[in-house]
């Protein structure tokens, strides 16, 4: 067996994944969360369908009704994922510290990366379980038409990557902070700023730029501000409603990767908004995981040095 195969086997057969995964599924909270999740999605689907049929049912066809209801469901599911993910991942490491079991993990044979990887997989897997149980509901709306298979797959990819990004950031603050409550509050605040905040500010800056550049030679569809390219709500609505926006080049995405939402330059190939969002989220996940591993490695070194200091002080 090669070295790469052994490393992959260690990542899959992680004791943290087995322990935390079984404990989450065996508790009564898992079916309760699924029932609440499906109930909220079903309620919003019914309300969206009733509003579409009651207000403009004669003017809209089945395809447009299906597209609007599917868009509402996708955005509501994204909001629920952003609501559940910090609550699940923000206490992954800090909870171990509060239960005084983090020292056992640090002195074990598991590497800091294996600990962080296991906690991230169990947290995101729980969110993926919620997403998977809602697929039949989306398939029912899919029968009305208006949404093709490609758009459906893009919405699911955006939802999964958003769950992964929110979970990774929440896990980072769970490692950085010793208290679960404080880590949860900070994770919720950053999640709100990264979704609603970037959407509102990016839309205002896009409209302001369109007004400043208004003229007969300016196209009607302005390019979105780089802040909108990091927003999963904007990417999802753009894909489902086929909103005409200006071309987005790779030069406008690169400033976001270094956390500098500047205007950017128009160079490089044209990138779809949802691809830009996935790229930004991938960089965010990588930075959060590496930061969590670095902090855990520092704690592990301190745990190993502490007995030596005690012995040297005693002698």
Task: Lay out the secondary structure.
Elements: H1 3-12, H2 15-26, H3 29-56, H4 62-89, H5 94-98, H6 102-106, H7 112-133, H8 135-142, H9 149-176, H10 180-212, H11 226-229, H12 232-241, H13 250-257, H14 273-314
3D architecture notes:
77% of the residues lie in helices and 0% in strands. It has one domain (3-314). It has 315 residues and is mainly α.
Features:
315 residues; mainly alpha
Distance between the termini: 47 Å
Q: List the domain count as a whole number.
A: 1
Helix residue percentage: over 70%
Structural class: mainly alpha
N to C succession of SSEs: HHHHHHHHHHHHHH
Beta-sheet strand percentage? under 5%
Count of separate DSSP helical elements: 14
- Report the biggest beta sheet as strand number plus sense, adding barrel if it closes: none
Chain-averaged pLDDT: 78
Based on DSSP secondary structure assignment, what is the total number of beta strands?
Answer: 0
Determine Rg (CA atoms, Å).
Answer: 23 Å
Unreliably modeled segments: none
Taken from the alpha-carbon principal axes, the silhouette is globular
Provide a concise account of the structure shown.
The protein is mostly helical and 315 residues long.
């Amino acid at each position: 067996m090669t070295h790469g195969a052994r490393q992959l086997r260690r990542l899959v057969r992680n004791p943290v994944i087995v322990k935390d995964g079984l404990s989450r599924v065996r508790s009564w909270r898992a079916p309760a969360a699924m029932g609440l999740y499906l109930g909220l999605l079903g309620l919003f689907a019914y309300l969206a369908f009733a509003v579409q049929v009651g207000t403009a049912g004669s003017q809209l066809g089945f395809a447009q009704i299906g597209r609007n209801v599917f868009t509402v469901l996708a955005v509501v599911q994204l909001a629920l994922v952003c609501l559940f993910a910090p609550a699940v991942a923000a206490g992954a490491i800090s909870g171990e510290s509060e239960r005084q079991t983090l020292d056992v993990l640090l002195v074990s044979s598991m590497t800091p990366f294996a600990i962080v990887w296991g906690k991230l997989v169990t947290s995101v897997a729980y969110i993926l379980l919620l997403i998977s149980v809602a697929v039949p509901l989306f398939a029912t709306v899919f029968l009305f038409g208006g949404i093709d298979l490609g758009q459906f797959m893009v919405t699911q990819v955006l939802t999964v990557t958003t769950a992964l990004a929110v979970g990774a950031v929440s896990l980072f603050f769970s490692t950085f902070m010793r208290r679960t409550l404080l880590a949860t509050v900070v994770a919720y605040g950053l999640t709100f700023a990264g979704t609603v905040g970037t959407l509102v500010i990016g839309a205002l800056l896009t409209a302001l730029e369109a007004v400043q550049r208004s003229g007969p030679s300016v196209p009607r569809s302005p390019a979105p501000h780089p802040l909108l390219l990091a927003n999963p709500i904007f990417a999802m609505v753009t894909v489902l409603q086929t909103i005409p926006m200006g071309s987005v080049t790779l030069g406008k995405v690169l400033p976001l990767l270094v956390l500098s939402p500047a205007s950017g330059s128009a160079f490089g190939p044209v990138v779809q908004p949802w691809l830009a969002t996935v790229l930004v989220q991938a960089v965010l996940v990588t930075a959060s995981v590496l930061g969590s591993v670095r902090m855990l490695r520092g704690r592990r070194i301190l745990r190993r040095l502490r007995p030596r200091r005690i012995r040297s002080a005693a002698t």
